[in-house]
Amino acid sequence: MLTSPANDGQGATPFLVDLTGFNGPLDLLMSLIRDEQLDIYDIPVARICDQFLAKMHELQLNEAAEYLEMAARLIRIKAQMLLPRKEGSDDWEDPRAELVRRLLEYQQMREVVDVLEHLGDDRRSRFARTYMGQPAAPPPAPLALSLGDLLIAVDRVLRAARRPTIHEVIPRALDVDGAMQTVRAILQLRARMRFRELIRDGAEPWEVLSALLGLLELGKRNEVHLTQPRPFADVEIRRESAGEAA
C-alpha cells in the first residue's frame, strides 16, 4: 500500500510505504541478495544496484524516501568502487563495509523475529485459548490514620458515650447469731412456728437474709426441722427432739 503526501491544513503528511513482501529497503536488498545467492561480504554493488532500481520501478517506489535513500547509497558505493586506487595501498577502505554491517544487523533481527514467531505459533498450537474473566477488583487500601487522628476519634466516641451509672454499695453486717437466738427463744415457748413470724414489718433485706441463714444453720445442726408443704408456701419450723433436749 502506497500513500502520497496530502495537505490536511496543518502541513503535508509523511509518505507511508507498507508492502506485503518487503519491510523496508534493507529487506528488499536482502531479498535480492538471497535470490542471486550472493556473498554478503562481497556484494557486486553495480549489479545489485541495477536490480534494486529495477525493483523500485516495478513496485512504484520512486517516491518512497527510504528506498530513494538506499538507492542513492548504492549508487554512491558503485561510484566509489569504480574510482582507481593505488596498488598495495593500506589506506583504502571498502565503501561496502557500512552497508554490510547494516545488512548483518538486519539479518540477525530477522532471525530473532522468525524464532519468536515460530515459538508463538508452536505455543498457540499446544495451548488453546481460555476465557479471561474480568480481573478482580483490587482490595481497598488500608486505612491511613495518624496518632493524632486516632486520639481525636477516641475522644469523640467518649464524648458521645453515656456516662456510666455508679451505684453506691453500703456494706451491712449480717446478724446470723442474733437470728438463731431469736428462733431458739421462740421454740422454747412452743414446738413450732412459721418463717414469717421471724420477720417484722418493714424489715430490711439484711434482716430477712440473717433470719434465713440462721434457720439454715440451725437445720444443719439438727436443732430445727424445716418443711414447706408446697412451692412458695410459708416455711414451717419445728423443734427437733435433740435440739429440744439441748
Would you kindly provide a written description of the structure presented here, covering whatever features stand out?
The protein is mainly α. It contains 8 helices and 5 strands; from the N terminus they run ββααααααβαββα. It has a 3-stranded antiparallel β-sheet. A two-stranded antiparallel ribbon has the order 1-2. Strand 4 (about 225) and strand 5 (about 235-240) form a beta hairpin. Helix 1 crosses helix 4 and helix 2 (about 45-60) runs antiparallel to helix 3. The radius of gyration is 58 Å and the shape is rod-shaped. Mean pLDDT is about 80; it is low at about 1-20.
Characterize the overall form: rod-shaped
Total strands: 5
Low-confidence stretches: 1-19
Count helical runs. Answer: 8
Helix content: 40-55%
Report how far the terminal alpha carbons are from each other.
Answer: 131 Å
Could you state the order of secondary-structure elements as H and E? EEHHHHHHEHEEH
Pfam families: SMC_ScpA
Protein name: Segregation and condensation protein A
Task: Give the helix/strand layout.
Blueprint: E1 2-3, E2 16-17, H1 25-36, H2 45-58, H3 65-82, H4 97-126, H5 147-160, H6 176-189, E3 192-194, H7 205-220, E4 224-227, E5 236-239, H8 241-245
Antiparallel strand pairs: 1-2, 3-5, 4-5
List its traits.
246 residues; mainly alpha; three-stranded antiparallel beta sheet; two-stranded antiparallel ribbon; 8 helices; 50% helix; rod-shaped
